[in-house]
Each structure stands twice: as structure tokens, then as C-alpha cells.
Design a protein that fits this description.
single chain, mainly alpha
Length: about 260
């Protein structure tokens, strides 16, 4: 199982389909593409390794705490242990995607978290590679809040790997510059027609809608779905985006150094 091979294959696929069925005219070497390629390489190959190395001590402390409280067997219950791959994958998809939908809500509604998440919302020309423009602190938040779910269920490596590839596929698809409407599947799967409205500028549409990661069903169930007749919003971003840094280095530092203009 080699994630890099899947990532390269999916990336090449979306480069091709965006040329064949574009939603709007957009150059392959558009503005900001160099930084987005850097995000893709760093966030896919190095960020996980770095966070993994840093999290070793946190997990060890957690394990010691669980042992002292005699809660290890409850925390690491492993309810999926011995279950088939199909059952593990379905449960993993539903549990993790719902949890990520909730975390994504928090990234928008908690000011300190929004400071980091707005890096992703600095996208002004949407395409598949925008899926990889995100701040490393955002990943730490996701992993920390998802860890109890992973520990409790104890999903197998094969199911986790497949889920990761599926999430990448849908992430590429949802961010892609594609002329794609998926009919009734829009109530289940995240897609370009919905996700672009999550990135709308306040001047062009309502905020805090379409939080779905892989699945859109949570937005429809909880009333945060938004899919108007207009194909795309007139503008993407957030209030003050004109002054927001434009490359990977300055954007990474922005949550700590920027003057704070960047309201949704």
C-alpha cells in the first residue's frame, strides 16, 4: 500500500479532467500554483511524518494516564477488531466523516481556529490542488480530536488506508474546477457544485455552509447545506483577503503575524 502512488495517479487524473470539462476558464499554471504545489508536496509527504514524531510523546503520556486511571481497556476498546474490511470501512467513513464535519464547523466558528483555517480559504481560483492548501496546525486539531475515535474503534490498517485514498479522491473532486452536477448523489457525496459555495466570499453568498468533507449528508441533515441555482459564486475568499499573504511561507506565518483582518 503506497499512498504516494495513489496521490500522483489521482492528481494526474484531475489535471486531465479539468482540461476536458472545466467549470470556468482557468490556466493550468494559474496564479499561486507554485505555492499550491509546495503545499501538496509538504502536506502530503512531510507534515504527517513531522506531526507523527511530535505526537509520540503526547500518546505516551495519554497511555500512562489511562493506565493510572485504569481506563486503558475502555479507551482502547477496539470494537472493530475482527470485523470484516467492508464493515470497518463503512463504520470508519461514517464515524470519521461526521466527526470531521463537526471539527470543520469549529474551525469556522472559533476565532483562534479560524486564524489557521483561513489559509485554506485564501483560495481565489478553485481547482483540485486547492484541497492541499491548509495550515499544519489545522491537521493537529483534526488528529487530536479524531484520536479518541480511532482508539475506541481500533480500525485496521487496510480500512484506514482505503479511507485515506477515498478522502483524497473526494477532496480532489470537491475542489476541482469541473462542470459537474451529480444529481441525487449531491445529498450524499461532497461535490464541486456544493463545495465552491463553502468558499464563497461574504459579498457573494452566505457563510458557514457546506462543511462536508467526503459526505454532504450531514449538511442536509443539520441544515447547513446551500446549493443555489447559480453555478458559482462571483468571488471566493473572506473579508480582507486582498491583504492576506500570497505564498506558502508567509501564509504559514500569517496566523501569528497578520493584523487580524480576515473575518468571514
Amino acid at each position: 500500500m503506497n499512498y504516494a502512488v495513489w496521490l500522483i495517479g489521482l492528481s494526474l487524473l484531475f489535471i486531465l479532467v479539468e482540461r476536458v470539462w472545466p467549470r470556468s476558464p482557468q490556466k493550468l499554471l494559474r496564479r499561486g500554483i507554485v505555492s499550491d504545489v509546495a503545499y501538496l508536496v509538504f502536506n502530503s509527504e512531510y507534515l504527517g511524518v513531522l506531526i507523527g514524531a511530535l505526537s509520540i510523546h503526547a500518546v505516551a503520556w495519554l497511555d500512562r494516564t489511562m493506565d493510572l486511571l485504569r481506563l486503558r481497556e475502555v479507551f482502547y476498546l477496539g470494537v472493530m477488531s475482527g470485523r470484516s474490511f467492508a464493515v470497518q470501512f463503512v463504520v470508519l467513513l461514517l464515524v470519521f466523516d461526521f466527526a470531521q464535519w463537526g471539527i470543520h464547523n469549529l474551525l469556522h466558528r472559533v476565532p483562534i481556529l479560524w486564524r489557521f483555517h483561513r489559509v485554506h480559504h485564501s483560495i481565489e481560483e478553485m481547482d483540485w490542488i486547492g484541497n492541499w492548501r491548509f495550515h499544519g496546525v489545522e491537521v493537529i486539531v483534526y488528529r487530536a480530536l479524531l484520536y479518541p475515535c480511532a482508539a475506541f474503534f481500533g480500525f485496521g490498517v487496510e480500512a484506514m488506508f482505503t479511507y485515506g485514498v477515498f478522502n483524497t479522491l473526494i477532496g480532489h473532486f470537491a475542489h476541482a474546477n469541473l462542470r459537474a452536477r451529480i444529481g441525487w448523489l449531491r445529498y450524499l457525496i461532497n461535490s464541486p457544485e456544493m463545495h465552491i459555495w463553502h468558499h464563497t466570499h461574504p459579498d457573494s453568498g452566505p457563510m458557514n455552509r457546506n462543511f462536508g468533507i467526503a459526505l454532504s449528508v450531514w449538511d442536509w441533515v443539520f441544515g447547513t447545506a446551500y446549493l443555489p441555482a447559480a453555478a458559482i459564486p462571483a468571488r471566493l475568499g473572506f473579508t480582507g483577503i486582498e491583504a492576506f499573504p500570497k505564498n506558502i511561507v508567509t501564509q504559514t506565518l500569517a496566523p501569528l503575524l497578520w493584523d487580524g483582518r480576515g473575518k468571514q
